[in-house]
Amino acid sequence: MLLATFKLCAGSSYRHVRNMKGLRHQAVLAISQELNRRALGGPSPGAWIHQVRRRSSLLGSRLEDTLYSDQELAYIRQGEEAMQKALGILSSQEGWKEENQQANGDQVLSKVVPDVGKVFRLEVVVDQPMERLYEELVERMEAMGEWNPNVKEIKVLQKIGKDTVITHELAAEAAGNLVGPRDFVSVRCAKRRGSTCVLAGIATHFGEMPEQKGVIRGEHGPTCMVLHPLAQSPSKTKLIWLLSIDLKGWLPKTIINQVLSQTQVDFANHLRKHLESSPAPEARC
């Protein structure tokens, strides 16, 4: 399959097929999907996969230029870099302090990260399969405002490829209106690695969404959610949410810390309530 696809992709460099609409697009996507499937779904890639990667690197980069603009490529890189940085923060187990502990086991931890600031880490177990959470948090992202009162609206401004989106989020007032309305423009990407899903994001600039009158533009630092089934109970999902955010404005740190940790606890409660009250989607064929 992969070798045939590679020949198709290479053939697109010949003049008599160069102008066939969609050929280069389909070829490079097919190579990418096949390599990812083999690399992530099975044993370590064999030498022949690395050889194909090397031989196709120049061709792939040339074809990539035809698929995305320079700005779109910059957004993709920004999202992937945010994911790596956020996962790096989560991988460090040192320095975390308890902020909030719930009777049901939900907990929020925090620590100060150099060049990032204070970050918050929510750890919960949701009595739903991972696919259900993935659908609500990624595929139905724009509907979050319907079940999470801390979010007024999330709108996808631009979709880039299958993994990356630019979003605008309008947050509700918090702490008894001590924290006024904020909005955020972010680049987000979603990746699947075997049975684990990672959803990451960071603040970005999008020219078509300038700052809004009467709303303070906050900024997400590197943030992510990690979803994976519990080993002992695959029908349940462990959710870890790393939150790094600058609310801007003149706010005491004690208010900020209280708002952010409570926002994470509230999110888990609203998510559970929504999943329990809404019917599960029909199984996919």
TrEMBL record:
List this protein's GO terms for biological process: cholesterol metabolic process; intracellular cholesterol transport; regulation of steroid biosynthetic process; steroid biosynthetic process
An example Gene Ontology molecular-function term: cholesterol binding
> What's the subunit arrangement here?
May interact with TSPO.
Reactions performed catalytically: cholesterol(in) = cholesterol(out)
Say if the entry is tagged with keyword Metal-binding.
no
Question: Which domain of life does the protein's organism represent?
Answer: Eukaryota
Xref: Gene3D superfamilies: 3.30.530.20
Predominant location = mitochondrion
Function, in words: Plays a key role in steroid hormone synthesis by enhancing the metabolism of cholesterol into pregnenolone. Mediates the transfer of cholesterol from the outer mitochondrial membrane to the inner mitochondrial membrane where it is cleaved to pregnenolone.
Subcellular location per the Swiss-Prot or TrEMBL entry: Mitochondrion
Q: Which GO terms describe its cellular component?
A: mitochondrion
Indicate the segments forming the START domain, all copies: 67-280
Any one Pfam family here would be START
Write down what this protein is called: Steroidogenic acute regulatory protein, mitochondrial
Tell me which UniProt keywords the record has, alphabetically: Lipid transport, Lipid-binding, Mitochondrion, Steroidogenesis, Transit peptide, Transport
PROSITE patterns xref list: START
Q: Which InterPro entries match?
A: StAR, StAR-like, START-like_dom_sf, START_lipid-bd_dom
Instruction: Please name the CDD domains in this protein's record.
Output: START_STARD1-like (cd08905)
UniProt pathway annotation: Steroid metabolism; cholesterol metabolism
